[in-house]
Amino acid sequence: MIANVKAILLQRDRFDFDDGTIVEMVIWKVPKPVKGSLHAYKYRLFFGRPGERIVGYDNERSKGDHRHIGAREQAYEFKDVETLVHDFFSDIERWRSK
Questions:
Q1: Inter-residue contact 75 to 65 (CB < 8 Å)
Q2: E strands within the chain?
Q3: Could you tell me the strand order of the sheet in which 41-49 lies?
Q4: To which H or E segment does residue 82 belong?
Q5: Contact 7, 29 (CB under 8 A)
Q6: What pTM was estimated for this model as a whole?
Q7: Which residue ranges make up each domain of the chain?
Q8: DSSP code at position 3
Q9: Per residue in 11-55, pLDDT tens?
């Protein structure tokens, strides 16, 4: 058994769009699941403007995997990191096309 295993940063990105919106993504591989999740990842994906979240995905401790679309919060079924990022950008595209 490996002692003192630390979280490993897998991704940290930020994109600023001409319309003032921002995408920020932070994904960690963690030694054990965050309370409320069944997988070994901790993540925070944000799309919005300063002070305004439009689309967000995260697995906040004890809340588990969930997403925010506007003011609505709903459970999210995490499959893998690739699907997570794909779903996040799909929700952004749906919002941007409105």
A1: yes
A2: 8-16, 22-29, 41-49, 52-58, 66-69, 72-75
A3: 8-16, 22-29, 41-49, 52-58, 66-69, 72-75
A4: helix 81-96
A5: yes
A6: 0.90
A7: 17-96
A8: T
A9: 999 999 999 999 999 999 999 999 999 999 999 999 999 999 999
